[in-house]
Structures are given as structure tokens and as C-alpha cells.
Amino acid sequence: MHKGECAMPLSSPDQPPSPAKKPSLFSRLFGLLKNPEPFYYHASKILVRALYRVRYEGFEHIPQTGPAIIISNHVSYMDGLVINTGLNRRIRYVIYEKIYRQPGVHYFMKLNRAIPIDSNREAVAVALEKIKEALENGECICLFPEGKLTLTGNMNRFRFGIEWILEKYPATVYPVALKGLWGSIMSKKYSGSRFGMFPRSFRRRVVAKCGEPIPADSARISHLQKIIMELKNSIDLAGS
User: Fold this and answer.
1) Order of strands across the sheet that contains 68-72
2) FRET pair for 104, CA 20 to 30 Å: which of 4, 43, 183, 216?
3) Buried b (16+ CB within 10 A) or exposed e, 116-134
4) What is the CATH number of the domain that holds 163?
5) Do the domain assignments include residue 1?
6) Are strands 204-210 and 173-179 parallel, antiparallel or unpaired?
7) Within a domain: residue 5?
């Protein structure tokens, strides 16, 4: 290079930047292990769609942001996942402590940030405080007022937990009725059978129907149970 000459620039200002390198498979797997919650969220939706043909009705009532309480009848261990698959937001389940601690379940409930609850007074107080904090943070809570799975296909009597929650935080309640899950995998219909947890069918028809929002001051146990019963009876599975 002669004196007075300048070197050519390596790149022109008008030249587009080179494309960013795609993350390697290893780095993506490492990221998944570091933060598996999004994977759990999407994988659970894929699982529900593989097992069932679900028709969602009235789910436009449930807001995509802000505090909300979803209540539903409890037919199978898949109920929460079926409901969440119909939403564009994540929900946190309120789950019985004994189920929450079960091997194989505990890990996934931690990913969901589920809130365990038990029948003793201290455990109830802790759970109610966690639910209140979640609602104050604009999260969506899903609980099953029956407190246990149905053993007959019929709804059990609702318990009073929802009213205690609304005393702490008066959020709007969204009633959801599930139909078609009785007799499916994870229900109790064949619990006495040797192959009780073995699926009898795949892609079975299921309907999840959400009713009109219920203000906190109208959300009494007897009223909520009546609404969900009416929703369930209004579902036509044949139209799925």
C-alpha cells in the first residue's frame, strides 16, 4: 500500500449485516433444561389434541389477561390440561396436596406452579394466601370445587373453598362444564379393573363449555353448582 492510500473498508454501511447464527441443537436443549416451563405448556396442548377431539364453547368469555378464577366439574386427571388447551394464557391449578406430591406428578405440577391445598387449617391458610397473591399478579386460577374426582360420572357436592378465596380476593368466576371425559384415560370409571388406566379409545369427543362470567358477590356454592350442572346438561356431544 502506497503512502497516502487508505485501506478499503471491510464492509459498507449499506451492506446488510450477516445473518445471526442459529442456536445449535445442544444450546436449545440446554435452554429447555434451564427453563422447561414453556415446553411443558406446549407439550400438554399437543397431548390433549392427540387424545381427544375437543370442542370449546364460550371460552371467549375468559379474558386473556388479568385476574380470573375458572371452576369446573372434575371428571379426570386431564381436566385442567383440557381447559388450558382452549386458552391463550397459562393457568395455575389448585390441587390436593396428596396428588401434588405424588412421584411423576410433582415435577409437572411445579412446572405449572400449581398451588397445593390440604384439609388442615394451616395448609388452607397458606394456599389461600398463594391464590390471593396469584390473582393480585393478574394470573388465572383453575380449581375444582368438588375437591375430588367423580367415581360415578355424576358431580359431587361442591365444597366451600371458592367462597373463602373470594373473601380474600373478589375476582370474577368463569364456570366451565366438561363432558365426554368420563370413561377416558385418567378417569375413575375403570379404577377397579386390572387395566383401569389403559385407554379404551383415542380421539374421543369432548366438549368444554364456559358460561357467562359470575361476579364475586353472586358466586355462592349452590348457585355455582347449579350453573355448571345446567351447562353440562346443555352440551350435545353428538355435535362435536
Assistant:
1) 52-57, 204-210, 173-179, 68-72, 140-143, 91-96, 115-117
2) 183
3) bbeeeeeeeeebbebbbeb
4) 3.40.1130.10
5) no
6) antiparallel
7) no
What span, in angstroms and rounded, lies between the C-alpha atoms of 110 and 99? 12
Please state, in angstroms and rounded to a whole number, the distance separating the CA atoms of residues 38 and 22: 19
Domain count, the chain: 1
Task: Report the half-sphere exposure of 20 (CA within 13 A, side-chain side).
Answer: 3
Which whole-number Å values give the CA distances from 175 to 57, 69, 103, 108, 219, in the listed order? 12, 9, 30, 25, 10
Domain encompassing residue 71:
36-237
10 within domain boundaries: no
